[in-house]
Hints:
With 267 residues, this protein is of the alpha/beta class. It has a domain at 8-184 and 216-222: NADP-dependent oxidoreductase domain (TIM Barrel, Alpha-Beta Barrel), CATH 3.20.20.100. The protein is 40% helix and 14% strand. The chain has helices spanning 15-28, 42-52, 75-86, 107-119, 133-143, 162-171, 190-199, 203-213, 225-232, 241-248, and strands spanning 8-9, 32-34, 60-65, 91-96, 123-129, 148-154, 174-178, 217-218. It has an 8-stranded parallel sheet, with helices on one face.
Amino acid sequence: MSIPSFGVGxxxxxxxxxxxxxxxxxxxxxxxxxTAQIYENEAEVGQAIExxxxxxxxxxxxxKIWVPNYSRAKLASSLKExxxxxxxxxxxxxxxxxxAPGNGVSVAEFMAALADAREQGLTRQIGISNFPIAxxxxxxxxxxxxAIATNQIELSPYLQSPKLVDFLREQGIxxxxxxxxxxxxxxxxxxxxxxxxxxxxxxxxxxxxWALQRGFAVIPSSTKRENxxxxxxxxxxxxxxxxxxxxxxxxxxxxxxxxxxxxxxxD
Length: 267
C-alpha cells in the first residue's frame, strides 16, 4: 500500500470551519484527509466525509495518536474512539504524533501497541510523525522499517532537514511534508515569487511542486475553496533543475513547530 502524494490537512481547523474545508476539498478532487486526536476535529471530519457521498473505499484517511494514549493499555482503545468519531471501521494510516521522550512510554512499547492495532484491523498502515533519526532508529528496531509507512515531518523551502531526509530515504521510509508553506511565510519569498511568475503559477503551487518533485507527500490545508483547488494544480507543475536549485538555497533551518516535551533533539 502506498501513501497518496496529495492530501488535505486539518490542523487548527475546528467546528464548521473544518467541515467546510473537508467538504470543499473532497468536492474539488481530494481523496486523502489528515487529522489527529489532538486536533479535536475528528468528529467534524467524519461528519464531512459522510455527508460528501464519496465512498469510503475511495478515501485515504489518516489520524495520529496523542501522547496520553501511547501505552499498550490505551492505544487501541483510543483509536477505536477515533474511529467512532470518524464514522468508519478503520483508518488507512495511524501515526504516533510525537516521540515525546520522557513521557513514561518507550518507543518500543508504543510502536508494538500500534502494530497490534494494525493486526486488529483498526488501521491499514502505521507510521510516525516528527521523529528525528535516533527515535526513528528505535521505531525501526521495534517493528522493522518495512512496517513504517511514513514519517510525517515539518518540511518547507525554509526547513529542508537534509540529514533526516537522507536517512529516511536510505531506510526506504516515505516522507510526508507538513507545514510546506511555513505558515505562509514562503509565499512572500521573492525567489519563490519569481519562479511562480516564470511558470504562471502561484507561490503555493511552486512550494508544493518543490516538495512533490523531491518525492514527498504533501497535506496543505485551507479554509478557502479556491485555494484548495489551486493547490491541487501543483501536481501538474514541473519545476526546472535551476528552479529546484534556487529553492534548495533557501534552507535556513526555519522550524515553525517545536513543542517542549514532545519533540526530541532534531538532526
